[in-house]
Amino acid sequence: MRATDSDGFTVIGKPWSLGRRIAAAAVAFVGIGFLVFAVAGSNPEGRLAGAGSTLANPILQRVSTSYQGYLAADRIDMTRQEGQSGDWTGGASALDYDPVGSVGGLMRLGDPAVTFAVTEVPLAPDELSAQGKVQFPLILGAAAPVANLDLAGADLVLDAKVLATIYRGEITNWSDPAIAALNPAVTLPDQPISVRHRRDGSGTTWTFTGYLAQAANWTGGQAAQVAWPVGEGAEGSRGLIEAVKATPGAIGYAEVGQARRAGLAVIRLIDGAGNVVTPSPASIRAAAGPATGQQGAPGWPMTATVYVVMRKSDPQNDRALAFFRYFYAEAGRQADALGYVPLPVEVVTEIEAHWALTFNKQS
């Protein structure tokens, strides 16, 4: 992903300007809406509910935990001033986030009990306007291809063409000459490749196929849900990671931090300029370019912008925005350790200023 107007992921200048709609993502919503919505359920009274991205789940869970502590401390201080008990159970201040995938989160936003969706698949301006919704960037993350291989500590390198050929079912063994040509110093096993992919509508799939689409032999475009020609599907990031871990010789894709914590080999990629790039906070910043103030260095080509989508009018909006204001402040302390990159302060300032212009005041 590059932070340019042409690819529809712009986060600089106008952070809320979200670019053009890509039809593949809209197609991915069709046919699964009723399934996803049917399990939405009602939200316990007083709890702030969101749903969506599995890629962003680790940072959301980490920040929500510290946010609950922040609110608890604030509540204890208030009750002591009022001469009340200092006990606080969380109740109305608790946050429920369900990592059902980017598409699932967007569909669950049809349930009034769900206040926000988190997604790497941005809605187009006409969709936002028609649905009475607001969208803004939250954080930068990264997906990566991962493998269950014993390479004696060596790193595997792939490019878009070879990766696309694997996911087309045309390269079926790790010792294939096309893989060997990209890894001349690596002893590759004579081992079948077991392809694994997401079965649900996924922002991680959206990011992954965005890289595959750089290859002329990948005709599926960029999509959140794909009719894969080969391999076995899994539900959610955890399901896909577990499927790869359980299958020697398997290949899949996942958020970088989750994959590393699971002990999977993260595959390095060749970018459009021919650079071999490793996913890291520095290469994620470089991929975002002007959005992070870092330009010139090779960027990680599976970088993702994570967005929040909310209704313009909702009685829980003030509470949700209070959480996201805290998230922006806290992300700088939590992001690097988990493999994310926070938005620059000046971008966050513009986003927060824009909230006052776009969300309807609640009486």
Automatic annotation (TrEMBL):
The chain crosses the membrane at residues 21-40. Gene3D superfamilies: Periplasmic binding protein-like II. One of its GO terms (cellular component) is ATP-binding cassette (ABC) transporter complex. GO terms for biological process: phosphate ion transmembrane transport. Residues 95-329 form the PBP domain. GO terms for molecular function: phosphate ion binding. The complex is composed of two ATP-binding proteins (PstB), two transmembrane proteins (PstC and PstA) and a solute-binding protein (PstS). PANTHER family: PHOSPHATE-BINDING PROTEIN PSTS. This is Phosphate-binding protein PstS. The lineage of its organism: Bacteria, Pseudomonadati, Pseudomonadota, Alphaproteobacteria, Rhodobacterales.
